[in-house]
Amino acid sequence: MINGAISPYYFKAVMYWDFEDIWIASVAQGILEGLLYGVIFALIFTTGFGIVTKGQAPYSFAFNQLLKIIAIVFACWTIGGLLSMFLATLSSNFYKGHFPLAPSDKDELLKFAWVGGSIWGGMIGGLLSSVLGVAVTKNSWAKVMTAGQR
Fold first, then answer.
1. How many CB atoms lie within 10 A of CB 28?
2. How far apart are CA 97 and CA 107, in angstroms?
C-alpha cells in the first residue's frame, strides 16, 4: 500500500502497467506476493518452531517470536529503501545506469529508488528472518527451559 502510493511510476515502469488505478493494482499484487511468501515463511517458521520447542511452547511464546521476526522484516524493508535512496542521491547516473527504467526527475528518482530498495529489502528480510527466526526461537526457548528448571 505504501509503495504503491509513493511511486506509481515504479509499478508502471517495472510491471509494464499502462492503466489507471495503479495503486489498487499494486495493492492486489502485494496481496498475491504476500500470500505466496507468507505460505513459504509459515512452513519454515512452523516447522522450525515445532522442532525447536518440541510442540511444548504456549501461543504467547510463539506470538512473541513472530513479533521479533516481523520487526526484522520491517527493519530490512526500511533499510533497503533508505540505502537505495542514498545510492540514487549519491550518484544518480550510476543508479540510472544500473536501473535504466528509473526516471530522470530527482524527486521521482528518489521515490522509484525507495520502492525498489524497500521491495528488495523486504524480500531479503523475509529470507533472513526465516533463518534468524528459528535461531532466535531456539535461544529464547533455551532461556525459558533453563528458567523453568530453577
1. 12
2. 17
- HSE-CB for 36 with a 13 A CA cutoff: 6
Please give the DSSP secondary-structure letter assigned to residue 150. Answer: -
C-alpha distances (whole Å) from 108 to each of 7, 24, 63, 82 are: 7, 20, 39, 15
pTM of the model: 0.86
**H helices present in the chain, as ranges:** 2-6, 8-14, 22-53, 59-90, 92-98, 106-148
- By the 8 A CB rule, do 137 and 48 touch? yes
The residue among 150 and 59 whose pLDDT is bigger is 59
Residue with cell 535512496: 85
Going by the DSSP 8-state scheme, the letter that residue 91 receives in this structure is -
pLDDT of residue 147: 86
**Which tens digit of pLDDT belongs to each residue from 66-86?**
999 999 999 999 999 999 999
Res 149 pLDDT > 70:
no
The amino acid at 83: L
Long-range (24+ apart) CB contacts under 8 A made by 96-102 are 101/13, 101/14, 102/13
Domain ranges of the chain: 2-144
